[in-house]
Amino acid sequence: MKLSVQNNTYTYENAVSLSDVAKKSNAKDYLAATVNGRLRELSFIVTKDAEVEFLSYNNPDAIRIYESTLRYVIAMAVKNLYPEAKLRFNYSISRSILAVMDEFKGTLDVATVENIKNEVARLIAADLKITRKRVSIGEATKLYTELGMIEKVAILKYREEDYVNLYQCEKYINYMFGYMLPSTGFLKNYTLFLYHPGFIIQYPRAEYNGEIPQFKDEPRFGLALKEAAKWGRIIQGNTIPKINEYAKDYQSAVDFVNMCETKHNHQLSELGDLIQSNMDNIRLIAIAGPSSSGKTTFSNRLRVELMTRGYKPVMISIDDYYNPKHLAPRNDDGSPDLEHVDALDVELFNHDMSKLVQGQRVTLPRFNFKTGTREQGRSVSLTEDTPIIIEGIHALNEKLTRSIPKHQKFNIYIAPQTQLHIDDHNPISITELRLLRRIVRDQKYRNSSAIDTMDMWPSVRRGEFKWIYPTQKEANYVFNSELTYEFAVLKKHAVTQLLAIPRDNRHYITANRLLKFLKYFSNIDDDIVPCNSLLREFIGGSSFHH
Length: 546
Known about the structure:
Elements: E1 2-5, E2 8-11, E3 16-17, H1 18-24, E4 32-35, E5 38-40, E6 45-46, E7 50-55, H2 60-81, E8 86-92, E9 96-102, H3 110-125, E10 131-136, H4 137-146, H5 150-156, E11 163-169, E12 172-174, E13 191-195, E14 198-202, H6 219-234, H7 240-246, H8 250-277, E15 284-288, H9 295-307, E16 314-317, H10 346-357, E17 362-368, E18 373-380, E19 388-391, E20 409-415, E21 421-423, E22 426-427, H11 430-446, H12 450-468, E23 477-480, H13 486-499, H14 508-518, H15 536-539
Parallel strand pairs: 1-7, 15-19, 15-20, 16-19, 20-23
Antiparallel strand pairs: 1-2, 3-6, 4-5, 4-7, 8-9, 9-14, 10-11, 11-12, 13-14, 17-18, 21-22
């Protein structure tokens, strides 16, 4: 058997584990591998000729395996120390995980967290083997019931396969809906500290080349996530089985959709109150957020909200201020960096905004994306009841709007802030939701395949880390654009595209990961999604989209 590993070829007489291959090839800091393009655990046994590539801390798929294993070991430590407690993991601020202990009889304080840290350290130092075992759905149901993992029993009803994979370490058994490291000793870097109402877990991030980013407390976003968790409890819709209960019949689904839409209405009303209370000062309302947050629909709905209060907002597109491509800053490979703030004519934008705020009439530019040049656009002027609304990647960047005093600006950050779970130990990533939204939208409006969207996604994410996340602290308000029912609607649009990605494609790993959790959702029909819903921006049929 010949294995090609990082441009070297190794010959084996018998089947061999990836761990042993890594040792022979001197692969360093490995966490997982691809075998002929398929993501595999290090415990995977190779039985035939293959191309093997080992993945380390700078690879997002490898880091997901690291994170799954870390959650597993922390859950094991808590079970060992406090068997009565129900542990729940939530994705949280500053790219961390917040662990909350329900039904805990003690006090979650510094000493408790220190006990958990010590137990985690003990389990890791012992380098305990983690073994995967396949059991029938019936066996898994019996086992989870005996262990009191009722939320895991609930999700098994929606599993298409008649088996489930479990992972065992000593006597502890659990399943984290993802691949695992072969032993606890691989977990070399993590941080745990008390953070009400639980404790924060930090782990290496691929975008930081395997380092743990500095923790930045973000009160506005912490509050948004707290509200999201509260919302999930109110509507009994914070896990997939609970969402699927709503999808069982048409009337329940209609009620569920309208409850979620009403949450957006309440946020818009709250925003309207805040803006109205300071409208004597506010001249510019700036809206920014990462890709597929729903900025366009939100901007229109905010415009309508303000119109109901007697104002006449004017929407100005930042995109109309693009410079021609040849003037754009360059990426390392020499291509134009169109996500850079200086890809825009910042001076002209500031000049025009300043004149408008001073009450002068301005002829705005209009960017012709077919010719790549700016043309003359409409002429506008402001009155006392005419605030400007802008939205885009750089809307909260002070450089873009420096000519307008801060007290005359109201900054809004929009992003989906979900606290949705497969089960208590397996939160669903907000980034995965945005990627699914974009896959569906790009196919609908841009005739782009899922492969095309995934090709662009790393560049989109780099732009977010560079231009959006550093400016989010400027926000006066965080709008949570998540709709708890949306996975059940997006599923049918996304699954067809994801299944079309061939096994030998570089994005098959991502497609397979998305399909694995989408399959648990029951469908909700498009026809009960309101025409002004933010979700319509992605699935089509929006009353704001021409």
